[in-house]
Batch of 2 targets.
Target 1
Amino acid sequence: MSHHHDHDHPHEHSGEPRWKHDGVRVIKGDQLDPNTAQTPGMFRQAAINAARVGAQKIWAGTVAIQPNAKTGVHHHGELESVIYVVRGQARMRWGDKLEYVAVAGPGDFIFVPPFVPHQEINASTDEPLECVLVRSDNEAVVVNITDVEPVEKPEEVYWVDPIHKHPNA
């Protein structure tokens, strides 16, 4: 009776073990991809997306926003968004009339559910805001809301990132 291992081990044709090159990926902080549309007032870099790692269901990256930057009022359709504040102070407004407000600082996570009208604001007038962004799809979805008068008008520098386009773009 043979005791040889006759069952197949999952190897790629190259002889490399399965998962070696398409398993867990570490994207170093100094290797983020700035080769994405840039906008005055901020600097954004992609870490996790379809092009870099083949991500199908999420996008992640970093964004640095200048003082006093704000977005227009919008929601992200069915997308869920997570914002992790690394440095600075973020103020979030949300609601049908942006009547609710919350502030997040370093170490805080912000969750934005689907279809919630909201506005992101750098709450500081002199410090940049640095965040990590994660969204639940690799496609950007933004629905701008024009019939709401924002409490804090986005008039200085717009907060624009891979999800939030400049209103005049």
Note: The first strand starts at residue 42 and ends at 48.
Target 2
Amino acid sequence: MRNVTPENISEVFAGYFGKDTDPRFREVMTAFARHLHAFVREVELTHDEWRAGLEALEWAGRITTPERNEFVLLSDVLGLSSLVDMINSHPGATSSSVLGPFHVSNPPPIAIGADLKGDFEGEVLLVQGQVRDLDGKPVPGATLDIWQTAPNGLYSSQDPDQDIMSFHGLMTADESGRYAFTTVRPVSYTVPTDGPVGQILNAAGRHPWRPSHLHFIIKAEGFRPLVTEVFPDDDPYLDEDTVFGVREDLVMHYESRPAGTFPDGFVLSGKVEGPWSKVDFDFTLVGA
């Protein structure tokens, strides 16, 4: 078309789709282009700014690996990941929250009562709870893919000194939907700032900190998978998470317990000599 203009380019773009195009693909792509075109008109984007944006995407592609996904991180810090999570969360079910760029696939299976802390220093944290449906009934056999950072604030895929499966495990809930494990208390940490995402944060005057948290992917037959993370109520970054992942129902409480009170039924039973903390957190799944 030779008479395309800034005002009609979105309409022209929509007219280029073939008649057999998948309707949902057409809907998403025409809306995407329409909002991009509106953005360019609103800010009167310059050629230099357009090129800078393309170069940032090229840079993100160069540094993305199976262990680090800069595009996921970009989606996170722009709030896109959390917005998708929120509009796809079901009322009454546990909220979704960001997957993050450091999930490791195929974690080793671990039993109920297993320990993720290993030889790492730090306060022992006992985490337990139940997986239930919207009616409050237990979901037996649900699988929980669990992961977190080490005490140095790094995920295993970021840290050459950690085994790649450090602080990762796949647990199967029992007949009552119960899960339980021990680990070291997670710490607040910064997202990577040595790529284009870091430049965006610096230019915006934003800090790169995330509140400490535990990650979960929970699956069960007949239910929608849940990707989420849970946060302690005393973390200083709870209300300023740089990737907008905190939800009210994902805040948990660490209960401090004195030495000599650690319960039986855990790998660390009889081995915890000092004070430790306990958290009880239940998950609610929605049917598929």
Note: The first helix runs from residue 9 to 15.
